[in-house]
Amino acid sequence: MDAFLKKEDKYIKILQVICDIKGINENEIFKILRDRECKYLLFLLLKKYRCTDVNNIQRDFSIESKKTINYNIKKAEEKFFVNKSFRDMYFEAEGIIDKTTE
Asked: Annotated Gene Ontology MF terms (predicted)?
């Protein structure tokens, strides 16, 4: 049960950090998927922190299949290796998450 709560806390923290970085209101998290960089950042962070639970993602973003999640993770990894500003944003978000969840 404790491990589940930690994953849920990390999932929530990832959403908060992305909202803060992109200036999105937490009540409007659906906007994360409209912005490609934001969406890819979300999926990379979810993968890193092992929060790719389909139920949470389906609840918040209406993504229904693991296949869609995996496709977005693959595209995000490609963007990570090609785009330096995206990498910088990823490392910034990762740093914030690591500091606040220790």
From this structure: isomerase activity
